[in-house]
Amino acid sequence: MAYLEGKNLAKSFKGRPVLKSLSFSMEKGESLVIIGDSGSGKTTLLRMLCFLETPDQGSIALNGRDLWNEKMAISREETIAARAHFGLVFQGFHLFPQYDVHDNVMLPLKLQKQKELKAKTASLPFFARRKEYREAMKKANGEMEVIVSGLLKEFHLEAIAKEFPYSLSGGESQRVAIARALALNPEILCFDEPTSALDPRLKNEVADLINGLKRNGRSLIVVTHEIAFASAISDRIIFLEDGMIKEQGNSSILLTPKSEELRHFLSQDQKEDNDERRSQDQKTGA
Amino acid sequence: MSFLEVTEELLQGFLVTILLFALTWVIAVPLGVFFCRMTLSKFKPLHYFMQGFIWVIRGTPLMLQIIVIFYVPGLLFAWQSVDRFVAVLVALSINYGIYFSEIFRSGYESVSEGQKDAALMLQFSRSQIFTRVLFLPILKKILPPLSNETISLVKDTALARVIAISEILMTAQKIVATYAIIWVLFYTGVFYLVFNGVLSVVLKKAEKKLAYFKA
Questions:
Q1: Which member of A39, B91, B178, B185 has the greatest number of CB atoms within 10 A?
Q2: Topology of the domain covering A4-95+168-284
């Protein structure tokens, strides 16, 4: 039984099919990398897995239990519960601009705790409820602070804990976004084009970071169109073209592609890499 | 008429102006939020109704709206005429509610969908998304246009004179017409300038308070 399994997933937007009957699976602790050209449906697939989009058909199962299938009428609460299994680091990071780094990481924990305590104390009379809530929140603050400090330390963010998102570099924003996504300890951490806004040095840094998460046993799903990055972090690769899986397997498919589409995609990527290297050389005057 | 007497008269008119401004603002802001919610509704008939309503209110003079609200109910339904102050208050509130709603809508739409998605992924409830994530960035975006409209509202209260409400400008006009003294008009301008000056300082302070982040 696979850890995460998607079966016959399809999605259309305004009658235009974006994903056409995709099936795939991944094991716990693996990193699944989804590659493909722009518009191939990578991000839509990721958003569907994170329950930001509802598929039109198929099923998504985690640990053998359906989180969603086409016969289920999923309620808002069930969607929220299904989403809780996943964390997502967005391409544009989407840090909350009004909070500093510390509070960006703290906020999900705080609000989660508030929700829990409100539900727990709902049956109490007004004043008792307020007292109980305040005391429990005070106690929880210390525990949450420990988690946040741990995350800030793990991602080398302590020195910039009081900075606001507008003053952070791309690499720093990326690390804050990862720390924030991990605050609620999701079972699967997803990344949407994590290297798209970064220079080559930072790309290696992100690859190291993702490999570090992998070593800690975290299950990962990464969407990217960069082959070198994909091969550095993947256990399993899905190649998407025109909303369909054209090829999937371990990273060896990048060395010996079977389909014409993947061969073409890889040669395009190679060409882009060469162009990028040439322009870097010109800039540095080498 | 002495300076002190003029000041006393103008102050009485100015109290009406301030009362009209304050009540309108207090009503128009929540009304604007309500209109904005209706405009953003996914229920198409409601959305189109609001589009039409906005077109009418923005496309006709505020003075006409005051006159219609004051006279039409009485003429059409033979009701007792609406209280003058209430009629102006209703007209100003609806008019400014519509303008505010458009400001709120543009502010809401300017906050990236990504922020909402990020909050959804972090398990925030709908009310938490609005209060903890969207509210401040929206407020930061809408504060400058909202300040402009607020200052316009102070000046537009002068239109109340069209149905004979003795706000400051009408009071001044009566003094000028009765005693043939011109300086009263300039003196009236000073009242507006001082009040709008104070408002501008307060609103600028609010803008500065939100300058610590970039939305």
A1: B91
A2: Rossmann fold (3.40.50)
